[in-house]
Design goal:
2 domains; elongated; seven-stranded mixed beta sheet; 15 strands; SpoU_MeTrfase; 60s Ribosomal Protein L30, Chain: A; Alpha/beta knot; disordered N terminus; alpha/beta; about 325 residues
Length: about 325
């Protein structure tokens, strides 16, 4: 974010000798690339505050949040899931840079770390930052760093780089143009629930750190390796790790290439193989590259429906195609 020294200003007003609040008096603080809160500020009342505007842009703009490597996580439960995973599973300190807590509400249990910056905000600011008009269930919003388990490969990077991004790629979920953030977040959560090892996003997918995707994922975006790349990267991974390519295909869409029905017998036959499962977009389905490169599998359905929602279908495939070290009922 480019801000001139003449236009970037911080509003501060001392309303209480024991509490610092942003409001109407103006103090210039130079030309930082990111608005920062003075250390003595522990309450923000105005949605016009530069730091609030920064948080709003993090929530609304994919390019802005990735350029700053920061993301807004809304809600106590997703924040707690992420911090618990980082502390207990990864053994790393929490990546919460700042916790915004609704004024008059106690800091949620388990989210009060000595190293965590906690700032109280008015209900108007909470609505602005969270994007939720009814904040009855929103007690906190966290400004967090995008995890190092996320990698966005560009076309100029060597294909070999993708090999080291998944530590044990027995089961990789591949998303082919998934644009609905709710569906993408739900697929990430299902991948975690059924023990898959990572997610590869082909071009055309929405940002996994979109606020709606984060809400649906409930912390899963921080708990599983996610790689965004192209078909060259995926082909490199397939060859290096000898992965079998499967693609979910609607039973009603009978093209020139035949498909196999998903069954317990098929799942058991694939249990010891390394798999990539491709899920296509909601509107357009699988890309031609996915169809040509994969064995097509379908979910047999008794009802007269063309297809299932992609997150529902994905949950079924992810459950049925778990590897041997996961429980298959």
């Amino acid at each position: 974010m480019q801000v001139s020294s003449t236009s970037f200003r911080v509003r501060v007003l001392q309303l209480n000798p024991t509490k610092s609040r942003y409001d109407d008096s103006v103090i210039s603080i130079g030309t930082p690339s990111v608005p920062t809160l003075p250390s003595n500020v522990d309450f923000i009342s105005s949605p016009a505050n530069p730091f609030v505007k920064h948080c709003l842009k993090l929530r609304q703009s994919s390019s802005y949040r990735h350029s700053h490597s920061s993301v807004i996580v809304v809600g106590t439960n997703p924040i707690r899931e992420i911090t618990n995973f980082q502390e207990l599973v990864e053994g790393k300190p929490t990546t919460v840079d700042c916790l915004l807590v609704l004024d008059g509400v106690e800091v949620p249990k388990g989210l009060s770390y000595s190293s965590m910056r906690i700032v109280r905000v008015s209900s108007t600011v909470m609505k602005k930052v969270s994007g939720v008009q009814s904040i009855d269930s929103i007690e906190a919003v966290a400004l967090m760093r995008i995890p190092t388990s996320f990698c966005n490969l560009n076309d100029n990077q060597k294909e070999a780089n993708v090999h080291n991004l998944f530590t044990s790629p027995r089961r990789i979920l591949v998303l082919d143009g998934i644009q609905d953030p709710g569906n993408l977040g739900a697929l990430l959560r299902s991948a975690i629930a059924f023990g898959w090892d990572g997610v590869f996003m082909l071009p055309g997918c929405c940002d996994p750190f979109n606020d709606k995707a984060l809400r649906a994922a409930r912390g899963a975006s921080f708990q599983i390796p996610i790689v965004a790349g192209n078909w060259a990267h995926l082909e490199s991974l397939k060859k290096e790790k000898k992965m079998k390519m499967l693609a979910a295909h609607p039973e009603s869409d009978q093209g020139p290439k035949s498909s196999s029905p998903l069954s317990r017998e098929l799942a058991k036959a694939l249990m010891d193989k390394h798999l990539c499962l491709i899920m296509g977009s909601e509107g357009n389905g699988l890309s031609e590259e996915s169809k040509q490169a994969s064995e097509l599998i379908t979910i047999p359905m008794a009802g007269n429906f063309e297809s299932l929602n992609v997150s529902v279908a994905g949950g079924i495939f992810l459950f049925m195609l778990q590897s041997r070290n996961q429980t298959l009922v």
